[in-house]
């Protein structure tokens, strides 16, 4: 449900999507908590610390694009962005079966016709699918995340990594990796000012115009070689995909 004490700009931020976003919030604080995807302590702050945090990133996402949410977990930020950008084609990449099952349930319940769910690992998916935008939240430090994300970008595509107060330190530590990947337009941005408090920190960079080699590093979790997508609410077997991510409660820290 929509919080009783709502942010003054809540309706303005979500517009016609607000009822659907509220249903998603109920899924996170109900089945999401019951299944261990969201920590019990996070339920009370699911709006301000999670949903609004993800919604702020929509300012960096074109209305029409392809988007991969790497290590989607419970769907943050991918599901939120799909509701705010209904003309975008969104792929939620997640290796863990219980999270995939929850994502498929969310996609069906919320009627997100342009969202699909793929189970597997990022390094398996690299070179087989690509998107204009790749997002990630609380997946891994930037030094590991950058290679996985760049491998899922189309040539010249954009990576948006939601980070916390340590974002600039992560960028400094990942300089060697980022240089090897030949990324460009690297920036640490504060987004959502005036809409969410505090603003959200995002590390943005552009993948090279021509990819060379597979994504760097290995995902921290192994997935099996099955894909899941919204097909009558069931996961379809097929090609590989995926990524690794940290446990869902860590998403609230925004520390990658």
**Oligomer state of the chains in this structure:** single chain
For the terminal residues, how far apart are their CA atoms?
28 Å
**Which class in CATH terms?**
Alpha Beta
Q: What is the CATH topology assignment?
A: Rossmann fold
Overall shape: it is globular
- Could you tell me the mean pLDDT? 83
- Rounded to the nearest angstrom, the radius of gyration is 17 Å
| Sheet with the most strands: spatial strand order | 3-2-1-4-5-7-6
Helix content class: 25-40%
Could you characterize the architecture of this molecule?
- It is a single chain.
- The protein has 256 residues and is of the alpha/beta class.
- It has a single domain, classed as 3-Layer(aba) Sandwich (Rossmann fold).
- It is 31% helix and 19% strand.
- The protein contains 10 helices and 7 strands.
- A 7-stranded mixed sheet has the order 3-2-1-4-5-7-6, with helices on both faces.
- Strand 2, helix 6 and strand 3 (115-119) form a beta-alpha-beta unit.
- Helix 8 packs parallel to helix 10 (175-181).
- It starts with 9 loop residues before the first helix and ends in a 50-residue tail after the last strand.
- The relative contact order is 0.18.
Keywords:
single chain, 256 residues, Rossmann fold, globular
Produce a short descriptive summary.
With 256 residues, the protein is α/β, with parallel strands linked by helices. Helices cover 31% and strands 19% of the residues.
Task: Break the fold down into its secondary structure elements and pairings.
Blueprint: H1 10-14, H2 18-29, H3 31-34, H4 46-55, E1 66-70, H5 78-84, E2 89-94, H6 97-110, E3 115-119, H7 122-125, E4 131-137, H8 142-151, E5 153-163, H9 167-173, H10 175-181, E6 184-191, E7 200-206
Parallel strand pairs: 1-2, 1-4, 2-3, 4-5
Antiparallel strand pairs: 5-7, 6-7
Helix pairs in contact: 8-10
């Amino acid at each position: 449900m929509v919080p009783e004490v709502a942010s003054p700009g809540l309706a303005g931020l979500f517009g016609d999507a607000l009822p659907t976003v509220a249903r998603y919030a109920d899924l996170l604080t109900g089945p999401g908590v019951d299944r261990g995807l969201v920590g019990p302590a996070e339920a009370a702050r699911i709006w301000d610390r999670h949903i609004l945090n993800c919604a702020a990133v929509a300012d960096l996402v074109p209305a029409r694009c392809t988007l991969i949410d790497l290590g989607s977990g419970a769907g943050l930020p991918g599901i939120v962005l799909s509701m705010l950008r209904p003309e975008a084609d969104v792929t939620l990449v997640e290796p863990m079966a219980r999270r995939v099952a929850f994502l498929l349930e969310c996609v069906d319940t919320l009627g997100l016709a342009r969202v699909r769910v793929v189970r597997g690992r990022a390094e398996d998916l690299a070179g087989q699918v690509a998107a204009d935008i790749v997002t990630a939240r609380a997946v891994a430090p930037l030094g590991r995340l950058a290679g996985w994300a760049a491998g899922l970008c189309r040539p010249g595509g954009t990576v948006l990594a939601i980070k916390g107060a340590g974002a600039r330190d992560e960028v400094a530590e990942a300089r060697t990796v980022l240089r090897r990947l030949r990324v460009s337009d690297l920036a640490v941005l504060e987004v959502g000012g005036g809409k969410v408090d505090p603003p959200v920190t995002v590390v943005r960079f552009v993948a090279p115009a021509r990819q060379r080699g597979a994504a760097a590093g290995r995902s921290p979790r192994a997935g099996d070689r099955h894909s899941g997508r919204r097909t009558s609410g069931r996961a379809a077997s097929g090609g590989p995909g995926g990524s690794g991510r940290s446990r869902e409660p860590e998403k609230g820290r925004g520390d990658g």
